[in-house]
Design brief:
The chain is α/β, with parallel strands linked by helices. It is built from 11 helices and 9 strands. The protein folds into 2 domains: 196 residues, P-loop containing nucleotide triphosphate hydrolases (Rossmann fold), CATH 3.40.50.300; 80 residues, no CATH class. The chain binds adenosine-5'-triphosphate. This is ABC transporter ATP-binding protein.
Length: 299
């Protein structure tokens, strides 16, 4: 399995990150399951640093959401360890932003955009949660405004959430995830259903966040998104097939194995990275000590 090295570390811009960049995610010998006994995802091994973004790639049912839930402390390790921001996932939860696959805010519910984003401040103070028990502080209000500015929707703060388009609502929910000032942002298929304009906007926002030192882990079926946003990839198929700099992790042999011999899928995934060194077939290690140079070579 892979071992992250300083030379393999890249920022979202494809340039080497500072050797001092802190580790944000550590996965070691990890098997995850839902009942504490039966693993649905095995052999997860890898490290992510501040400013790096990891794409979880794999077919339906391969374990992408399960791994995200593992980082949130919602799925239990059957074996191995997960560390998030140097802590157990449950202990790091208040410093992790999460954008779920299916938005749970009912668009017909009469709340403003600002109120939705303010929900992201709830877990900042577990002893005095924002809402009924305490009014918003100046820091809360500033954080909500900052988050709305980051996603380009500050001018919609007083609008009803349900009046916004689906793509704008997605950005509001991203702002909610950012309002808690997370060190790690988890996104479950964030580009689903977005048109090109909103997709470009989200891509830009995520690139800015990683440039500012945030770590991102996202699941996606969209190779364009993975290429545009992520420095690293983990390829899953019920077990980890690769974890490393994105150009290497998405090697044809790995993708073919993940998609059960579908070489056409492998061609789509691997095409941008043809110049990258070949990875070993799944089961063997994927060396990750070569810079991804993602933006320079793959777009
Ligand atoms: N709550 C649950 N309880 C038990 N098993 C589950 C649960 N959720 C998912 N699984 C199982 O875990 C495995 C991995 O599912 P997961 O949702 O992580 O896949 P995925 O890669 O995110 O799929 P998709 O691309 O369809 O979203 C599947 O076999 C699935 O049936």
């Amino acid at each position: 399995m892979t071992t992250e090295t300083t030379t393999g570390r890249t920022t979202a811009q494809g340039s080497p990150a500072s050797p001092a960049a802190p580790v944000t995610v550590e996965l070691h010998g990890l098997d995850l399951g839902y009942d504490g006994r039966t693993a649905v995802l095995t052999g997860v091994e890898g490290t992510l640093h501040a400013g790096e973004a990891l794409a979880l790639i794999g077919p339906n049912g391969s374990g992408k959401s399960t791994l995200l839930k593992g980082l949130l402390g919602l799925t239990r390790p059957v074996r191995g360890t997960v560390r998030v921001l140097g802590r157990r996932p449950a202990d790091a939860r208040r410093d992790v932003g999460y954008l779920p696959q299916t938005a749970e805010v009912d668009p017909t519910f009469p709340v403003t955009v600002r109120q939705v984003v303010a929900m992201g401040r709830y877990r900042r103070e577990t002893d005095r949660p924002l809402g009924w028990l305490r009014p918003a502080s100046a820091a809360d209000r500033r954080a909500v405004t900052d988050a709305l500015e980051r996603v380009g929707l500050a001018d919609r703060a007083r609008r009803r959430f349900g009046e916004l388009s689906g793509g704008q609502r997605q950005r509001v929910l991203l702002a909610r995830a950012l309002a808690g000032d997370p060190g790690l942002l988890l996104l479950d298929e964030p580009f689903n259903g977005l048109d090109e304009t909103n997709r470009d906007a989200l891509e830009h926002i995520l690139a800015e966040l990683t440039a500012g030192g945030m770590s991102i882990v996202l699941s996606t079926h969209d190779i364009g998104l993975a290429r545009a946003v992520c420095t690293h990839a983990a390829v899953l198929a019920g077990r980890q097939l690769a974890f490393g700099p994105i150009a290497q992790a998405l090697a044809p042999a790995v993708i073919t194995a993940a998609y059960s011999g579908r070489s056409d899928v492998a061609a789509v995934y691997a095409a941008p990275f043809r110049d990258a060194p070949a990875a070993e077939a799944p089961g063997g290690p994927v060396a990750d000590d070569t810079p991804a140079s993602r933006r320079g070579s793959t777009r």
